[in-house]
Every structure is written in structure tokens, then in C-alpha cells.
Amino acid sequence: MKYYLIAGEASGDLHASHLITALKRRDAEAEFRCIGGDLMEQAGGELVRHYRELAYMGIGPVLHHLPAILRNMRMVKRDIREWMPDAVILVDYPGFNLEVAKYIYTSIKSPNTRQQNNRATGHKDIKVFYYIAPKIWAWKEWRIKSIRRYVDELLSILPFEVDFFEGKHHFPVHYVGNPTADEVGRFLAKAHIGNDDFLRHNILSETRPIIAVLCGSRKQEIEGNLPAMLEATDGLGDYYQVVVAGAPGIDHDFYKQFTHGHHATVLHAGQTYQLLYNAHAALVTSGTATLETALFGVPQVVCYATPMPRFVGQLRKIILKVKYVSLVNLIAGREVVPELVAEKFSANNISSHLNSILEGAKRKAMLSGYEEVKQRLGSDCAPDNAASVISGILATATRNR
Predict the structure, then answer these.
(1) Are residues 293 and 372 in contact, defined by beta-carbon separation less than 8 angstroms?
(2) pLDDT tens, 7-47?
(3) pTM for this one?
(4) Strands of 210-214's sheet, edge to edge?
(5) Which of 350, 355, 352, 348 is nearest to 339 (CA)?
(6) Is 50 exceeded by the pLDDT of residue 120?
(7) pLDDT in tens, 73-105
(8) 82: Cβ contacts below 8 Å, ≥ 6 apart
(9) Residues 6+ apart with CB under 8 A from 381
(10) According to the 3-state scheme, what is the secondary structure of 86-102?
(11) Which terminus has fewer CB within 10 Å in the chain: N or C?
């Protein structure tokens, strides 16, 4: 089988790389073309375009890079048409991926174009799978119309999504387990190996507790979040080590403009899990990192700066369909970790909440909440389950041709 995977950011690259590995175990002759990152390439995918050329965030950057975004979209559509895979697997990144799904449906799978394609290539169909369902339960719920029309199979990694898609919108979904839980579990099983080398290589003390700072994976996020996060840790340098996780695709020197004047160490990319393994507490930008931090058992404060914070804070109440922004709280269905977003985001607020979880009752309560989150996620291996669903559906479709 031929698989075409599209991931638009670092977390998608990680999850898709494990899915590629799982599919290869079931299909020894599988071929993969990818829009993604280094991990997908290392797993065996032919990298057509790196996600760094696609990942723009915010109205300003998107408008500024719009010609490049449109060029990449045209390239992806052309590449899919020319390669004609058996399956296109979309990984999160809905703004881009739903447009790709629409193109496949309207330009390749519609009755007229399918007949033309069959005569030209003998290829009957392309199955569109969505692995890591778009988070339309948070906002842009109207995208369910595009999912209904253009996506064949939806694979979910969050347990509460089943009720949203099936219960509310009557759209079938496969809950396959959570890949982040799998990845953290695999890491923890052998994390002690080489840990001393990690500390020594990064000149970190074995005796002073570490406060991990995970400030986002894009430059805009880092610029907005890191200054206040570091300011909040000022005064703790005599007792704790403040360590910033470097993000993939971000030059190490980029962080220097923010760390100047602060007691903080910046790690090179690819060491976040090792950092969390050693951390005592963390400041974390909302996203997958909040769940990773919880699975490592590290008490955290969720921090996310926005432009025009007061306005965004009010707008959020109107636009967002959910009460929380962090995956930890969404999975638990209650506030396990504090969320300092928009107008609540400030160095003083961050400092206050951070100090409250370094020791004491709030720290213990948060760790107890983490156990609840782990139980709700379950122990299923997400990439293996997803690969089983995908390969089974493709095998059935092949038999029925």
C-alpha cells in the first residue's frame, strides 16, 4: 500500500513517525510520502516538504507568508494526484489538512473525476483518514461539515471526543488510545539510562531541583511567553535550576535575547522528555506539552500569552466551546492545573501559582489529579491501534474492488 501523511508541527511529526513504524509492521511493502519532519523521515517516509515551511501562526504571519502557504498547498495537491496513494493520513493541523481532504474528495474521488482517474491509472479510490481528530470541540465546530463530507475515517486520541463526535454529531469515530501516553511510557521505561550523562552534558546539578520551562514550539509563542515565564522565576535561582526546553526548528541562539539577565539554561532541541524526567515543577505553554508534563508527574502552571489580553479574554468566553484550554483539565473534566491565559497571564500570577506547587497541599492535589487523567486515557497503544484500523479498512476496500 501507498500512504501519504501530512503533519504540520513537531508533535504531529512525532505521532506520525510512530504510526509509520506501526504500519510497516503490518505491511512490509508499504511506501510512505510525507509532509512532516525529521522523525517521519527517520521512520521511513520520503519527506516531500518539512513542516517548518508550513507552520505559521497568527493572522499577521499567515498573511505575510500567504504566497508560500498557497504554493505549498498547490504542491501537495499536485503531488497526491501524481503519486495516487491508497490512503492519505491527515495528522491534526486542520486549517491545511481539511483543505487537502476537500481537494481529494472534489477533484479525485468525485464520480466524474474518479472515472477519469480509473481510465488513466487504474486506481479506484483514495481513503482519507484523520489521525488525531481536529479539536473542533474547542472552536470552529462548523468544521464538522467538512469532516462529514471529506473524511472517510476519524481516529481520536482523546476519550471525551467520542461523545462529542458520536453523541453530539452522530459521526463515527475510532478511539485508539493516546499516543502521548504511549511515548511517555516508552521513555520512562528506560529513562534512567544515560540520565547522568544528560545532567553532566548540560552542566546541571544533581542536587538543586529543576524548574522546567516549556514555552512553545513556534517563535511567536516563545516571544510572547518566555519573558514573563523567566521573570516569574527570578529569585528562585539560589534554590532551583531554571531550564528552558529548546524547540525543534528553533535556533538555539534565538533564546539568548530572552534569557539575558536571568539565571536560566537553554537546552538544545530533542531533550524535553529528559528535562521533564528530572523536573520538580514546570511552566508550560498550553498544548500537548501540558499532557506530557502531567504524564511525567511534574506539577505545572499552564501559561499562554495573547495579544490584547483583556479583549481576547472576553472574546474567548464567546468563541471557545470548552471551559478549559489544557488537555489535562479537559480530560479530567475539572481544573487540575491552573490556566493563566490572556488577561490572567502575568509574571506575578505565574510566580504566585508556581510557588504554591513547589511543596505542600496544592502539589499533592495536582499529582492526585494526574492519576485520574492517566486512568481516563487508558493503556491502549495508539499507533498500533490506529495502524490496525487503517490497514483493516484498506484491506476490506481492496477485497471489494
Answers:
(1) no
(2) 988 889 999 999 999 999 999 999 999 999 999 999 999 99
(3) 0.83
(4) 264-266, 241-244, 210-214, 279-285, 300-304, 339-341
(5) 350
(6) no
(7) 999 999 999 999 999 999 999 989 999 999 999
(8) none
(9) 177, 182
(10) CEEEEECCHHHHHHHHH
(11) C
Three cell numbers at 212?
522546567
Length of the chain in terms of residues written: 401
Query: Which single residue is written with the C-alpha cell 509492521?
Result: 25
Q: Which three cell numbers stand for residue 215?
A: 514555552
